[in-house]
Amino acid sequence: MRALVKFLLSAMGINLGGLRIKYKSKDETFLEKDLVSKEPFGQFDAWFKEAVSKKEILEPNVMCLATATRNGCPSARYMLCKEYGKEGFKFFTNYGSSKAQDMEENPYVAATFYWVVLNRSVRIEGYVEKLSEEESTKYFQERPIPNQISAASSCQSTPIESRDVLRERESILEKEYLVPGKKVPKPYFWGGYIIRPTSVEFWQGQTNRLHDRIRFRRLHEGEVADGKLLHQGEDGWVYERLSP
């Protein structure tokens, strides 16, 4: 009977418990003294530039963006972060997409960067705001023309009969705009957002699973940085080490 139960359980799925990934020759710890900045954006900049320097990381600006409806139903997808700085993290999308509808109902989001080669992750929590029409238009005009045409061709997240429908729309726009000196106008349904973080966590993985986690966040009402569990940072940020 025990053998039968074991067989039935194994038949239900693939056991990944023994899967192990070798990240690098040895673990790299991430201690408080290793912080290059006492606020999250400077620290992110240091880690991001290191990710960019690794030729194995093809798109270091890929992030997983998680949104939720007003009722709390979550969804996640991969996006390209197009700019970051002390204001926040910017990305662009179709305003009619499911993610945009979520953000219209519920502006609170989370985003995660993961660079497997470095065994590092950055987790961001905060809220989104739409970028101005001027900024969205400026970025749209900087995109390659085929990308502009693709954005204008798609009613993102809506059902479609076949890929041929997309190709037909694309072909019509190519005939109109693949002409020297002619610009593709930014679609009214396309533009940018900025994530304004309330929390940014830097995660350095360890092969023994005693990972290093340092989180920057804003002080809660009545809270004081004691210099032991909670440390005073810069620009209104505090930081703390989290258990793995």
Automatic annotation (TrEMBL):
Keywords: Flavoprotein, FMN, Oxidoreductase, Pyridoxine biosynthesis. Residues 55-167 form the Pyridoxamine 5'-phosphate oxidase N-terminal domain. GO terms for biological process: pyridoxine biosynthetic process. Residues 190-244 form the Pyridoxine 5'-phosphate oxidase dimerisation C-terminal domain. Pathway: Cofactor metabolism; pyridoxal 5'-phosphate salvage; pyridoxal 5'-phosphate from pyridoxamine 5'-phosphate: step 1/1; Cofactor metabolism; pyridoxal 5'-phosphate salvage; pyridoxal 5'-phosphate from pyridoxine 5'-phosphate: step 1/1. Transmembrane segments: none annotated. One of its GO terms (molecular function) is pyridoxamine phosphate oxidase activity. It holds the Pfam family PNP_phzG_C. The keyword Transcription regulation does not apply. The keyword Iron does not apply. NCBIfam families: pdxH, PRK05679.1. Homodimer. This is pyridoxal 5'-phosphate synthase.
